[in-house]
Amino acid sequence: MKNLLFLLLIILSACKDDEALNVFIENETNRTNNSSQKQSQIPKNKLSNVSLYGTIKNGKGITIRLESPLILDKIALDSILIDESEKFTLNAFIPNDYGYYVLRLLNNSNDSIEIPLRGGDSIELNSSINEFTTKPRLSGVMWSDEANQFLEQKRNHKNDLAKYASKLMKQKPSSPYNIVLSKYFIGSEQDINERKIEIFQDVTMAFIDSFPKSLATKNFVDQLDVLVDIRSKTLNLSKGDYMINNAFYDVPEISLNTPDNKPLNLSSLKGKYVLVDFWASWCGPCRRENPNVVKLYKEYRKKNFTVYSVSLDEDDTKWKQAIKMDNLIWPNHVSDLKGWKSPVVPMFNIQGIPYTVLVNPEGKIIGVNLRGKELENKLKQIFKS
User: Fold this and answer.
1) Three-class SS of residue 112?
2) What domains can be seen in the chain, in order of their start residue?
3) What is the CA radius of gyration of the chain?
4) Is the dihedral angle over the CA atoms 298, 300, 304, 309 positive or is it negative?
5) Nearest C-alpha neighbor of 228 from the set 216, 241, 218, 219
6) I want to staple 179 with a disulfide (CB 3.0 to 4.6 A). Which of 78, 87, 116, 385 is the partner?
């Protein structure tokens, strides 16, 4: 699974406070629609035919239309009169990546259903005029079960849509129908909490894995950023502190050599709480902090805690001497002996040492630059019995 730390830092842009919730709710529709405005500019090899067909009971003579909604208007991709046998077939060339679309009946009530589509899909819909929005009975695509369940829920429990959308998104985080469900996921700012954000993060990561180049995936990343922005401001935290406190970031891999010149990957310690400690033999503050780290290691090493020391030394002998002199008794010591030119420096944005990163057993960062009493209190909180 890709590293959300760097994904968010590189891709995301923050939203203005007064726009944040509206941006979240409308994000998928608006952003996908922006791509529809430019659809004529998309190379033909990135477009494929989508086909929707089926039967609408009592729908004879009514127009059914496939739309790509726009902020101020709608693009009608195809429309047709339902024939005498109550059947219809719609075809349109659309992008091969998933996007948000609307299937609409041009009847008195202008009934419509929201669907995710990509070029190449072939979808069957069998319903009636009276049940078009609640029992469309979709089939032929991977997301049809979720769509049928949610649309029936819309009819029976209109006030619980946010709760039901959350349930479906949690059950199937990679379902393309989450493009639609995301519009119902949050009812108001008061609904945004850690459980909701965790569900949305799982969906975002699932889309990154399943549909890495899709505009819908970028939209989920952007929407996640908005949720975190709103929640962190509610708690009076910086966005970075909030995300660290809630274990959003995967720790980057470190693969350096031990004093015996054997490779030791940070990931080999997954399953433990790990203090990644950046230090050097020439660093006075690091050497003064070492007794505290030794003390905490002795106290918690039998409780699934260890230390992974990364030295910014350039002198092999001085590094080894300092390990021995300071009684750094844990076995995990690594360095590439490149000092500040080591690639770990920009990887962790290290501005000075000592510098620490606390990692949980799942490989998520749960603390940064903790030392002294602050580190002691954090470990007490984790290992309190």
Assistant:
1) strand
2) 4-238 (no CATH), 255-383 (3.40.30.10)
3) 27
4) negative
5) 241
6) 116
